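Possible regression after last week's pipeline update?

I re-ran a chain I had predicted before the update to compare outputs. Posting the input and the new output here so someone can diff against the archived version. Not blocking, just want to make sure nothing changed silently.
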Amino acid sequence: MQARAALPAPEAGTAAQCARHARNAAAAACERCGAFMCTLCRVKSDGLVLCAGCFDRLRAEGSLASARTTFRSWRTLGLHLSVLGLPLITFGVFIGPASIYASVRGIAQGRKDGDEGGLAGPILSLILGILVTGGGIFFALTMAGAFRPPGARR
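New output (post-update):
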């Protein structure tokens, strides 16, 4: 036999009841679906008051910025691409511009987020990205025969 605390049932017509907890008075209504909820069910996120079900749905969709658990670091991506492009210089025409793009996005992301990680990494990856792009273009032109000496057979 289990002992349960007996809570008085709310009187009819006095207050709205929580949709999940019938014995709790509603403290708010969900701004998305309109369901009544008690203080146990209420979730405040991104300026919205949501029920647990709507919060779970919006979090799964990725609509709530405060519930995101992943983060893309453009700064790191740019550095990795530029370093990867050095041994893969034959693909520098593709890897270099991607590295430059990611590096520029990393600089903008750092300014927007107030990141104090410094600019050394993004500037280094930007320079390496330019070198990888130039090396890739040079390799492509060399393979196409653009740098043959005059009078050489084609």
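Follow-up from reviewer: compared with the archived run. The chain has four helices and four strands. Marking as no regression found.
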